[in-house]
Design brief:
- The structure is a single chain.
- This protein is an alpha/beta fold and 321 residues long.
- It has helices at residues 3-28, 44-51, 66-71, 76-83, 117-131, 149-160, 180-183, 208-223, 252-259, 263-273, 278-301, and strands spanning 58-60, 137-142, 165-171, 174-175, 178-179, 200-204, 229-234.
- α6 (149-160) links the parallel β2 (137-142) and β3.
- The protein contains eleven helices and seven strands.
Length: 321
């Protein structure tokens, strides 16, 4: 990655980190109702992958999806308002943390169902191929989702039909409280691509320069009609599975070791080694913080949904009413 691209990713990672920290602060202050699943420590993967996409490209997300949403171009004001259940949110405050979507940016939505977004991305990939469009679909999912039937069915179909889908597994080593080595039959989830005749790669999910190489190649393959790719990004969530999780299942020493691998710290050091002045990086961090502070003011000042409009945007599947 050249410095410009890396600086863009650095700014995006800071924006995601500060958004998540703000969400945690608002939750602890009892201003954000309901738990949220934060991606602090995992910012490099969504920031880098989405930097290589356009608004025309699709993504599907997960219950830990704020980073994907922001990296795909979301306005942090509307995103935070959605988390807080305000009418100015992306889904008018009705979707909340696990159901944010923004079709204008190609974000087909977060998904509270583990593995639920994977077949949706395959569906988007099929639409792209049938319409002969110059797009790709990216499915973000966690390590535990690779043990779901939707994962295997989706990879098989995408491979058989050579669909322009990129499967990105963010392996943060835990499915809620269960370490992946206790629940997953393989050391590297990427190896499962072998069973579906699919190119597969394992990368350091905290290093944007490594992620960029494999994702760029996967995009080229997809757009050339060569089919899907499975990419496993090894990373780690610093916080609990959700905001009320005290994480008794892992040690403080383990968390501290992973904090030393902070993707933001790594990228800053990489940029400084390339001659980018620290003052420029400080300015980007301050800019990111200012945007999130503005988003907080916007969300807090936004009205809650009007109860009179509760039946709007509701779809009926049957019956006479």
């Amino acid at each position: 990655m050249d410095n410009k691209a890396l600086l863009d990713v650095y700014f995006m990672m800071n924006k995601i980190r500060k958004f998540e920290e703000k969400a945690l602060h608002l939750f602890e202050a009892n201003k954000l109702r309901g738990s949220v699943h934060l991606c602090v420590g995992q910012e490099a993967t969504p920031a880098t992958v989405c930097s290589l996409l356009t608004d025309k490209d699709y993504i599907t997300s997960t219950h830990r999806g704020h980073g994907h949403c922001i990296a795909k171009g979301a306005d942090v004001r509307y995103a935070l308002a959605e988390l807080m259940g305000r009418s100015t949110g992306y889904c008018k405050g009705r979707g909340g943390s696990m159901h944010i979507a923004d079709f204008t940016k190609g974000n087909l939505g977060a998904n509270a169902i583990v593995g639920g977004g994977i077949p949706i991305a395959v569906g988007a990939g099929l639409a792209i191929k049938m319409k002969k469009e110059d797009r790709v679909a990216v499915s973000f999912f966690g390590d535990s989702a690779s043990n779901e039937g939707t994962f295997h069915e989706s990879l098989n179909l995408a491979s058989v039909w050579k669909l322009p889908v990129i499967f990105v597994c963010e392996n943060n080593l835990y499915g809620i409280s269960v370490p992946s080595w206790q629940s997953t039959s393989v050391k590297d989830i990427a190896i499962r691509g072998e069973g579906y005749n699919m190119p597969h790669f394992v990368v350091d999910g905290n290093k944007p320069d490594e992620i960029e190489v494999v994702v760029s190649e996967a995009i080229k393959r997809a757009k050339n009609g060569e089919g899907p790719t499975l990419i496993e990004c090894k990373t780690y969530r610093w916080l609990g599975h959700w905001t009320g999780d005290p994480t008794p299942y892992r040690t403080k020493e383990e968390v501290e070791e992973w904090k030393k691998k902070c993707p933001i710290k790594y990228t800053r050091q990489l940029l400084e080694s390339r001659g980018v002045p620290a003052s420029q990086l400080d300015e980007l961090e301050a800019k990111a913080q200012a945007l999130i502070d503005e988003a907080e003011e916007f969300a807090l000042s936004s009205p809650e949904p009007d109860p009179e409009l509760v039946m709007e945007d509701v779809f009926y599947t049957g019956g006479d009413n």
